[in-house]
Design a protein that fits this description.
The protein is mostly beta strands and 223 residues long. Helix content is 0%, strand content 76%. It has an 8-stranded antiparallel barrel with strand order 1-2-3-5-6-8-9-12. Strand 6 and strand 7 form a beta hairpin. The chain starts with 8 loop residues before the first strand and ends in a 6-residue tail after the last strand.
Length: 223
């Protein structure tokens, strides 16, 4: 069943926003008095072209901000381990920008082409920076990081026409193959360390559930 037609151009936007808040929380009697707050916000505009019915290729840009703080927490590993203490105050802020190329295949679910599923493969590159601040004694120290990621990801989803040429979409990140590189610097800009990692992981990531809106532009009426 057809959902989109050859020659259509789509323009759209996906976004996600999540928060974490903890006030005097305990975890398994090991961590207690946890006071933490965090947010993650992502916005990704994109444009694509249907080179044949139900098949689209396009480009996507993205921005992600992550911020969080840990004001207070205590740990206690028990009397037998003789290890307890307090975790110092921590703050983290991260801003990342991405560019990706994607291919999306649709499958219509009804004869009128109003409901559909899609499978998407995306090859993307992400760069950005992070600031990690922690309290050491009575002073604060900051570590700066430059981040790089290359990723091949799989993002299935569903779409429904809420207006004749406007679709509401929801997609789910199911993982993929990725390479990460982080370079750390001190406050003067001197390199203090680096690390690299690569992995292949396929599983549902609740932080990668995106709601979006897509506008379909076409030259002929759907039949």
């Amino acid at each position: 069943l057809k959902f989109a037609y050859k020659g259509e151009v789509i323009m759209g936007l996906t976004a996600s926003y999540g928060t974490l808040s903890s006030d005097d929380t305990d975890i398994m009697l090991i961590l207690d008095n946890i006071n933490a707050d965090g947010t993650v916000a992502t916005v990704k505009p994109f444009i694509g072209y249907f080179y044949r019915d139900n098949n689209c290729i396009g480009v996507r840009f993205g921005y992600r901000h992550m911020g969080g703080s840990l004001d207070n927490a205590r740990y206690d590993l028990g009397e037998s381990n003789d290890a307890s203490g307090q975790i110092p105050k921590l703050d983290i802020n991260s801003d990342n920008y991405s560019f990706g190329i994607f291919h999306r295949s649709y499958a219509g679910l009804d004869p009128k082409g109003r409901f559909g599923l899609f499978a998407e493969l995306e090859l993307s590159v992400t760069t950005g920076s992070s600031d990690f601040k922690y309290k050491s004694g009575d002073t604060y120290k900051t570590t700066y990081s430059d981040n790089f990621q290359a990723r091949l990801s799989f993002n299935p989803g569903m779409a429904v026409y809420i207006f004749p040429n406007v679709c509401a979409t929801v997609s789910f990140g199911l993982g993929g193959i990725q390479y990460n590189s982080v370079t750390q610097k001190d406050e003067s800009g001197k390199k203090t360390g680096s690390r690299e990692a690569s992995n292949m992981r396929f599983r549902l990531n609740i932080a990668a559930i995106n709601f979006g809106m897509t506008v379909h532009l076409w030259d002929k009426k759907k039949k």
